[in-house]
Design goal:
248 residues, alpha/beta, 4-stranded parallel beta sheet, two-stranded antiparallel sheet
């Protein structure tokens, strides 16, 4: 993989939108969202012309394999990874073979704690789990960052540039769909989206601290030991939906 292979090269978001599944188009076509996208497209064109390196290559990738009614679990991140080769357009996911970011490490260790491997000779089997979470997306997990682009080495550099209008609309669209879903809201940033979800349908909302090492073990609800992956699957079974193989 080239170190810049995850770099945004096509500044026009309209080109990227052409590849988004049709089921998302009405949501992305509302007046407020179109206005935000026009502003974002202009900003991206300007920054690329000025030499900025922007990630990821495909900002809307989280929507590729899903439609609102096929989403089973929503996991919200904040913004893409800002290092070369990391961002994939899926929250918390990095390519296999890259150094595992601390939050992803805690996520995978929580899965291993919840679903331990039978082989007792494996000391830390979470190391065997893949960094690339596209396997979850293929099972109905929407891995959505609330900001969909970022500049190299500058976390949150595109926050409050309009992406929140777009992703709030996507979250609302998923919540309005009547198919039962689980929303995992980790940390204050994700939990601020609670109002977009509550009362919209028969959904389970799970909240805990962010999996970052800075907060994963702290009160009020530590991420470590939160059991969200088990609780999500139990709830999906109760509602006659397919469970997620978190260790696939």
């Amino acid at each position: 993989m080239s170190p810049q292979s995850n770099q945004l090269e096509q500044a026009s978001l309209w080109v990227h939108l052409e590849h988004v599944p049709q089921a998302w188009q009405p949501c992305l076509g509302s007046a407020s969202v179109r206005t935000a996208l026009e502003s974002l497209s202009s900003m991206l064109q300007t920054r690329l012309a000025q030499g900025a390196v922007i990630y990821p290559a495909r900002p809307f990738r989280a929507l590729d394999t899903l439609e609102p009614h096929t989403v089973q679990v929503v996991i919200l991140g904040q913004d893409p990874y800002h290092g070369p080769g990391q961002a994939q357009g899926l929250a918390f996911s990095v390519p296999d073979g890259f150094k595992r970011p601390p939050s992803l490490r805690n996520i995978l260790q929580e899965i291993e704690r919840t679903y331990p491997t039978d082989d007792s000779t494996l000391v830390l089997t979470s190391n065997l789990l893949k960094n690339d979470l596209s396997r979850w997306a293929q099972q109905g997990v929407l891995l959505l960052n609330t900001c969909l682009t970022v500049e190299d080495g500058q976390p949150a550099s595109h926050a409050r540039a309009g992406w929140e209008t777009v992703t709030d609309a996507l979250i609302t669209e998923v919540a309005r769909d009547p198919s039962p879903k689980v929303f995992m809201l980790w940390g204050a940033h994700a939990q601020a989206k609670h109002a977009l979800i509550a009362g919209q349908g028969d959904h389970l909302i799970l909240m805990a601290n962010h999996p970052s090492p800075l907060s994963a073990r702290r009160p009020p609800v530590p991420f470590v030991g939160c059991d969200h992956f088990r609780l999500a699957n139990e709830w999906l079974i109760q509602h006659k939906r397919q469970v997620i193989d978190w260790k696939a």
